[in-house]
Amino acid sequence: MNFELTKEQQMLKDMVRSFAEKEIKPYAQELDKTSGFNEQAFKKMGELGLLGIPFPEEYGGSGGDTVSYAIAVEEIGKACGGTGLSYAAAISLGASPIFYFGTEEQKQEWLVPMAKGETLGSFGLTEPNAGSDAGGTRTKAVLDGDEYVINGEKCWITNAGFARQIIVTAVTGKKDNGRSIISAIIVPADAPGVTISCNYDKMGVRASNTCEIVLENVRVPKENLLGDSQKGFSQFLYTLDGGRISIAALAVGIAQAALEKALQYAKERVQFGQSISKFQAIQFKLADMATEVELARNLVHKSAWLKDQGKPFGKEAAMAKLFASETSFRASNQAIQIHGGYGYMKEYDVERFLRDAKLLEIGEGTSEIQRLVIARHLGC
Amino acid sequence: MNIYVLLKRTFDTEEKISVANGQIQEDGAEFIINPYDEYAVEEAIQIRDDKGGEVTVVSVGNEEAEKQLRTALAMGADKAVLINTEDDVENGDQYTTAKILAEFLKDKEADLIIAGNVAIDGGSGQVGPRVADLLGMPYVTTITEIKIEGESVHIVRDVEGDSEKIETKLPLLVTAQQGLNDPRYPSLPGIMKAKKKPLDELELDDLDLDEDEVEAKTETIAVFLPPKKEAGRILEGELSDQVQELVNLLHSEAKVI
């Protein structure tokens, strides 16, 4: 056993932390207000190699591991939850599926510019009637000669407004047992028939770009099929397993930010002649927050480590996502409580943490779905 | 261009620092590259990128300084040398560090040596000039701009807020002042590459130095934190009364007049 980060991981952490302090955190409040997207930060993250952390150098990546990636997500999420979400989605959902399942040509065409930070990509799975129940997918792709013709609708797609391409899941046929065959197809965002509108008014993670996509007779070459046409479903289950680690890391970042804010405030705020950090009621809250953050981070690092070792990590990733996102919500809630009336004011940041944290209990599989996944791993 | 950078690992003075038993407590302190040395590293990399050559970063310290040297390598330096004095030097001072560095540098044929203007911990600002002196090399401190054309060097240095322009020649030692540049972040590919770059570790023996040759010339009597800043006081009443009270307080309480 060795819980220590490697020198490279430690250096990466220091680098991302100071970068996020300077280039991301100062904009968090404003972007939350305007629901803007920090394009400048993404450009700089690309230059620093952060958008290619888990991909090998031959594909324009930095050749880092999942643990390094989780560290980067945590530090960025600590500075701004919305930017953190867009960052995590860009890698876990936009780029990773092409790295996992793409052909060499697809990797060169789509993955390399993403890993270098020159472009962003999205993953279009969720529909008005299908999310975790992928069987409800209604988007259809029909082969017509050498092209797929795609029709359907996708919702809540992260980064689509800035994406060069979207990996879209669509029904391509029926199995003998009557179940739909779901495939994943790479659709250029500028293909005729693709309409992307980003008008959601969200509760939190407002600095993250979220869009609705309508596909009307969109034609793409059949070479754009991603991976096995029969196994689209298991492919995106694998993709989501990996994505959970990054959502969990983001949750740890927000929880850590909430803890630090609350601790600092508790030490400064004087009531009844002493700082409120001297009161046990406040101390117990801070102790619980710190303990849960530590536990959540350990679980995130463990599931990332398992993935890096090529071992099964689905159960641990679901546990990490479940525990970290709920920790993040609780810690943000307690941070507001410790701040009292000030905490309810936007100026003090902690109310934003709570709104941002709420998404993490919902996105990429709700907490209920995580419990189902974990229970299945237990053999239920 | 054969460029050397003198780098110190120091605690981050923006983080909380505590003193116990006359020593700064290293547990819980954050350690960084001395910020002025970071300017030095950045400038060295820029000059190398422009003129070609090699940047070697040198630090006198203990094993822990490897992390800061690796960070400099990740920023883009080519080589690093750690002169580990952990076993040999108990209480070093500026003389100690300068003597060791000069001994290391004397046969390296450096064209340019860049150091930080001052370290944020000890704050003596002596090591750079002392090294230059021991090497018999000209030096310019607190530079904010440097341009090299052939052998000649054009420098702007900060003189208590004013600028002084200096023309000089290589070889040369300069110390970096804030404003010289904006140090880059070490990129992730840079961090990965740093793993494979050479980092040599030397001890006093390797430099043919004895412990007593580098013995400190100064003695530290006490280490303490500056007094805590008290809340200010606002005087009230008629202006003339306030002036009267202020003068009284300066005399009787602050004892400055």
Give short descriptive properties of this protein:
heterodimer; A: 380 residues; Butyryl-Coa Dehydrogenase, subunit A, domain 1; Butyryl-CoA Dehydrogenase, subunit A, domain 2; Butyryl-CoA Dehydrogenase, subunit A, domain 3; four-stranded mixed beta sheet; 11 helices; 51% helix; 17% strand; B: 257 residues; nine-stranded mixed beta sheet; two-stranded antiparallel sheet; 13 strands; flavoprotein (chain A); AcylCoA_DH/oxidase_NM_dom_sf (chain A); FAD (chain A); Isovaleryl-CoA dehydrogenase (chain A)
Summarize the structure.
The complex is a heterodimer of chains A (380) and B (257). Chain A is built from eleven helices and ten strands.
Of all chain pairs, the largest interface belongs to: A-B, 20 and 15 residues
Number of strands of chain B: 13
How much strand content do the residues of chain A show? 15-25%
Structural class of chain B: alpha/beta
Number of helices of chain B: 6
- The neighbouring-strand order within the major sheet of chain B is 11-10-9-12-8-1-6-7-13
- What is the gyration radius of chain B calculated from CA atoms? 22 Å
State the separation between the terminal residues of chain A, measured CA to CA. Answer: 31 Å
Residue-averaged pLDDT of chain B, rounded? Answer: 92
Q: Main β-sheet of chain B: number of strands, strand sense, barrel status?
A: 9 strands, mixed
What is the residue-averaged pLDDT of chain A? Answer: 95
Uncertain stretches of chain A: none
Family (chain B): Belongs to the ETF beta-subunit/FixA family.
Protein name (chain B): Electron transfer flavoprotein subunit beta
Cofactor (chain B): AMP
Organism (chain B): Bacillus badius
